[in-house]
């Protein structure tokens, strides 16, 4: 394994050996570090910040954090303390950066060359957004989007719209959305969006607004650059604009995590080929594994409990590996019989790569 570049101070509590530090704001989980027990521990969960994370001090008194709610009958500020009185729900979701897998696009789009590790499966606990809207008298009317604004301090001297983290998702996403203050059984760490984070199950990472300070039900999408031109599925070499689809829902996807070459030389014999698979927004139906780069496939077994359609599932297939070169691949299918694609379309931002071929894992067995 490559020597671990050191973790920046705000995440120095993470498990450095298990992470790949691209930059101070882009840190991914090693393929071999996902384990087989579904949930990704906070110490191994990837980090992606579009702006530097706020001071740790914002989680000193998490209950006092206040968020504006707009586009409802009775718009007002609500503190986390008040939100905690409106309901509790827990959901397991795959948190996955829109650019996860970018490093596997042949067209070499610019941006962090994430492999598989800008993703994790975590448990969130918080209040359903539905409850909050109901408590404030319902929607004001005319809303088509749910817009969340991050609580970062914006750099001075720049047009705020050009840097702020503000994303709009279709209003229907509200049905499953949560305002979360807990992750994996612990108060939400500020690096992952504490005191309060908007969780939009089934939607890619960028839509899950950290340290949320405003939740608005709006007629139009945000005009912040990150929404208007950023995170758009535009053709290679072109700038994104509102005519291109926004990066919202995630696709059915899977990849192999073991045996991984990074954990040492592989010996011939029986191995448990394992990995993770997700349905995106739909439940997962099955996963197939190939040890010959996709020429032949066998159905794998899903491991452990089903944590719902927004979580991933671990899968395993025992295989006997002879000495030589092998290419391990997996392809998932959702309950509507959509197979994970073989190759995802190239796009300027290198978003939403779920192609099984480029995610295949070449190994050498001695
Ligand atoms: N939020 C805020 N506030 N800020 C920022 O920067 N980023 C994004 C999300 N949210 C941000 C937010 C992104 S982009 C992502 S992925 C995510 O987040 C991550 O998370 P974590 O926790 O892991 O760090 Mo891509 O699509």
Describe the structure.
This protein has a domain at 253-365: Immunoglobulin-like (Sandwich). The chain has 5 helices and 21 strands. It has helices spanning 80-83, 129-135, 160-163, 225-228, 356-359, and strands spanning 19-23, 26-29, 47-48, 66-70, 76-79, 89-96, 119-128, 145-150, 166-170, 178-183, 186-187, 197-199, 212-218, 253-258, 269-278, 284-290, 298-299, 301-303, 312-321, 324-334, 361-365. The strands form 5 sheets. A 5-stranded mixed beta sheet has the order 5-4-13-8-9. The relative contact order is 0.16. (molybdopterin-S,S)-OXO-molybdenum (MSS) binds at residues 45-51, 95, 97-99, 150, 152, 165, 192-193, 204-206, 208-211.
Q: In percent, how much strand structure appears in the residues?
A: 25-35%
Strand line-up in the sheet with most strands: 5-4-13-8-9
| C-alpha termini separation | 18 Å
Structural class, from helix and strand content?
mainly beta
Number of helices: 5
């Amino acid at each position: 394994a490559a020597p671990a570049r050191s973790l920046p101070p705000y995440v120095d509590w993470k498990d450095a050996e298990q992470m790949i530090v691209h930059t101070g704001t882009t840190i991914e989980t090693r393929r071999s570090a996902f384990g087989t027990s579904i949930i990704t521990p906070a110490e191994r969960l990837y980090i992606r910040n579009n702006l530097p994370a706020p001071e740790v001090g914002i989680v000193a008194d998490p209950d006092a954090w206040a968020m504006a709610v707009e586009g409802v009958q009775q718009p007002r500020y609500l503190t986390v303390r008040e939100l905690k009185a409106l309901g509790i729900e827990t959901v397991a979701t795959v948190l996955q950066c829109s650019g996860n897998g970018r490093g596997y696009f042949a067209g070499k789009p610019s941006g962090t060359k994430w492999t598989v590790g800008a993703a994790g499966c975590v448990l969130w606990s918080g209040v359903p957004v539905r409850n909050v809207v109901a408590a404030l008298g319902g929607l004001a009317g005319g809303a088509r989007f749910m817009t969340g604004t991050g609580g970062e301090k914006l750099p001075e001297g720049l047009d705020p719209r050009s840097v702020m983290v503000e994303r709009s998702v279709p209003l229907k996403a509200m049905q499953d959305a949560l305002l979360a203050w807990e992750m994996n059984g612990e108060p939400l760490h500020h690096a992952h969006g504490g005191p309060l984070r908007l969780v939009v199950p089934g939607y890619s990472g960028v839509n899950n607004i950290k340290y949320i300070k405003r939740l608005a039900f709006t007629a139009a999408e945000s005009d912040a650059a990150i929404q208007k031109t950023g995170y758009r599925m535009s053709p290679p070499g072109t700038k994104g604009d509102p005519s291109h689809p926004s990066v919202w829902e995630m696709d059915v996807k899977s990849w192999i995590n073991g045996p991984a070459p990074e954990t040492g030389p592989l010996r011939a014999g029986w191995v448990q080929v394992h990995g993770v698979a997700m349905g995106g927004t739909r439940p997962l139906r099955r996963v197939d594994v190939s040890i010959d780069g996709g020429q032949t496939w066998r159905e794998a077994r899903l491991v452990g409990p089903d944590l719902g359609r927004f979580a991933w599932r671990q899968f395993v297939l025992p295989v006997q590996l002879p000495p030589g070169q092998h290419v391990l691949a997996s392809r998932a299918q959702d309950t509507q019989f959509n197979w994970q694609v073989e190759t995802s379309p190239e796009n300027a931002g290198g978003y939403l790569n779920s192609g099984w071929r480029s995610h295949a894992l070449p190994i050498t067995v001695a």
